[in-house]
What we know:
Layout: E1 11-12, E2 20-21, H1 22-35, H2 38-45, H3 49-63, E3 68-71, E4 75-78, H4 80-116, E5 123-126, H5 130-141, E6 147-150, H6 153-161, E7 167-173, H7 178-186, E8 194-208, E9 229-230, H8 237-249, H9 266-274, E10 280-284, H10 285-290, E11 294-308, H11 318-324, H12 327-334, E12 339-340, E13 347-349, H13 350-354
Parallel strand pairs: 5-6, 5-7, 9-10
Antiparallel strand pairs: 1-2, 3-4, 7-11, 8-10, 8-11, 8-12, 8-13
Helix pairs in contact: 1-2, 2-3, 4-9
Amino acid sequence: MLRITLQPQWRIAQEDGPALDANTLLGLLAAVQGSGSISQAGRELGLSYRHAWGLLQQAEQLFGQPLLVRGRGRGSALTPLGEKLIWADARIGARLQPLLESLASELEGELGRVQRRQRAVPRLHASHGFAVAALREQLAARQVPVELRYRSSLEAVAALAQGDCELAGFHVPLGEFEAAAARRYLTWLKPDQHLLVQLAVRTQGLFVAAGNPLGLRGLGDLARPGLRFVNRPEGSGTRVLTDLLLKREGIAPQAVAGYDNTELTHAAVAAYVASGMADVGIGVQTAAHRFGLHFIPLLKERYFFALPADALDRAELRPVLTVLRSPAFRARVAALKGYEAAHTGEVMGVAAAFQT
Length: 356
């Protein structure tokens, strides 16, 4: 099975000068940030000290200011510009990852069809999430082909109903907002036409800077003057949740500074907050943990895959369902911060899931 990986590439240059391939530079800066040593960072990346030092000098000449502060006997630390480059790279990676994964998966499918010519490959449209990414990794490790496209929860479920995919990933909050959120999906999901497989239960909450320097306590703080919020796009499950939470608190969207400022994924929201471009965002605990943010839990939600009612009898879907229901995948999901996998892989009807 073909596996294609697409990665963003930085190139930096003065207007008429030669371009610097910044990917190696960014890796070097990140390694120096971790070790405090240019020589150690170079060894980690397989670069000689001379090469690493020359790359840093070239970059500093290009920017016209230092990227590192070098102290005798105290190691090296990044300057504010060096840190800014690291956070910019983190934001770009978080923002582009789902798009590049989707494109790579489409290419795999197209080239695979040329090779196989007749074998059907399941199409998975899903709201981006860490458990979905883990599933793709497990499927690839077992040579199970699937075409993955990241979309909003509502778009994914609509695509399933219209026959554009065989699995649709979406999430619904547990508790007081479950019925209101589920109604959006039940326009497309029909008890006699679809089944659900539970992927995970995960915790959603507020992302704030490490140590919570602004002293945020809950969603009501979003109306605080001067507080900068970063949202998720319209149609995403988290945007639906945000609107429901704001309505409960009696906060008008226009009262939230940054309500219309959006990022595509939980990781991109976390990177945005971690880089200091916003004070608070909403997303899953895993993203907050990976970017070193303080996390304020708000509620839990279930993430499902919706499938055609005859999915268990379809030969092309059986390998995917086998991985979904395997102990190895359940353990992989349980290892994600803020995820619960007790019911991962369980199949249920639409009516039973939402008590319609």
